[in-house]
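Re: the 169-residue chain
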Amino acid sequence: MTENWFRCGDARQAAAGYYKALRQVLRLRPDLRCGTVRCAHCGILVLSHPCNRGRRDIRCPFGCRQHHARKESNRRSAAYDHSDEGRGKKKALNARRTGTGPTRPTPPPHPDFCRAIVEYLRQIVGRIERRRVERREIAELLARVMRQRSLDFQAKPDSPGPVPRAASP
């Protein structure tokens, strides 16, 4: 984003309309004049809180704030990536992505949540079956029921595969 972007092309008309509306608002409410500041990037006059009077680092909401945030994020990332810690982490990420490095283990589910769910299921199943149900049974039940199947199902080489449906007469 370049400075004076609001003076080019279609943005020029939009900026003119904005300044016209801003002048009308300031004419009707002169007390808001103390809250006007210029954007540090493009110089557009914007309304802000009166406590920001005199600040030189305020950016307009028309793209300069986002541009500055993105630029600063890139600067922080580059600084981190050039540090020893960042280089090590990036090397590990690249190795994991290419399959040459150790994979990060999946974090275990939150233990309190799991205990609460297992205990709740143990009580419910026990009431339904009218017997005492062990936590081990619930864990086995959950492992069996919650097992995920692969999305790219392939028939085993020795099996004939899915049987085609017969055409209906």
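The chain has a mean pLDDT of 79.
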